[in-house]
Fold this protein.
Amino acid sequence: MPQKKTFSFFILSAVICTILSGCGRQTDQNIDRGQQAQETAMTLFYEGNTNAAIQTLNDALLNRKIEPQSKIYLFNNLINILLKAGQADTAKERFLAAEKETPDLLQNALGRIMSYYQQTNNQDALMAWGSQLMELNLPEKFKQSVTLQLAQTLLIKDQINDVLAMINDRVANFAPQSRNRTLQALINFAIKNSKLDDAEKILASAGKLSEDDPELKVIIKIANIDILFGRKEWDKGIDQLKSAATQIQDNFTSSLVRRSLDALNNNTESARIDMLCKHIIQNNKNLSNTCMATARIYLTNAKNKPQELVNRLVFLEKHIVEPKAFFTLYRTYIYNLLGTNDKAVITTLYDISKRLAPSLEENNAQSMKLITLDLTFILEDYAASIALVKSRIPGQDDAWHAFIIRKLEAHLALQQGRHEDAIKSFRDFMKLTEEINKPESDPTTGILHTTEMILGRNAKRIGDIYLSINKKEDAAKAYTEAKQYYIEASNTIDKRNTKSIDVINKGTAELAEAKKSLSLN
């Protein structure tokens, strides 16, 4: 019977709340009160009325109508404002009082005062406060974070013996995963701050804890390599890295290789970079992330050397097994090469494209077709370009296909000496350009070409064709038309777009030179 009465009481309470429509709104009102207090306090603080802001938050924390969850954020805000106002002692007092009376309030405020002392480089205060925190009944995860911050501060203060004591007395007793993360972070901190001797001493302490811990053994192995690179003992470091790459997981190897290559790059060790990259890629094909990270560095190291860059792409095509992964690299770096005048380089790229295209998925196949179209156009293989477009480029509509084919047919006719057909096709292309009226970006340079710039260039082309077949009057008309387009282009282009303006100026100069050949009065 007592259970039935209790059950009936809860049902009755729910019914009353529903009838009065008060319970649901009460929660919203509580949340609103908390939000309102927070907004009011921040407004007062940014207006310079810090004391009023602090008082607003203190009052809100005492308000029973504000929900506990809202008070967590209000308390965090209070600690932040006190610290921003330079009232660290008051912030500590409020923190310690909350730890005794309402520890739930500390959820978001843990670590705020430690971070404040770190940011203000007040190492002594940080040490004192951290030691005080370690005596409190705080979450273990937080105590591990405090331990790391204290140990890092001791390193900065050149107190390595105290760090080693902390490792033996405290860190060694953490759960294995927490212990390893703490040791790893501490070792990395020492290396980053060029305290390599200290890092080696920490490694020695870590080694005593690693007997039955494969993960810690990996951390130690990686750290030893980082230290060798930090000491610029390149050959020894590279030998250990080669060995480690076959023994440790992909994610560890990937970050280790990047750090090692960065160290070599910062010391202009280009030959060693290239040698190490080739070795990693050739001998660790099962480490996909490592190989991709290494390949990017290998290519970047040659991005200003077209022939070398294309040679490296050929090398990677053989050793990056997954076509999608290689295409990601190929697509990224090919546009460093399209602007080169070296036809041998472009031909090699075209050969790679033909080999790679059949193995790509649909979305990458579309990108590859567009790349191949650029390559055939640069190689002036207009027949191949037309065939490619007629086979349909995925993702492009009929208007785009008609537009591109007309342009290609014009170039092909000119190449084959069919001058009248070329003129007609260029005229058709100009008409479509006007109808579309959309700027184009040159894939080899990234320069934006407005409609007027495109029309001016093609009108000049038509003039050149007329001039080549000795139709000087028609050539003069086309050149005059081209000049007018260039004037319009110059008047409408954004003056901040200096690269496009340079193209207009160059086109205008070439046009003036061509008109000299007319020899007309």
Summary: The CA atoms of residues 152 and 186 lie 7 Å apart.
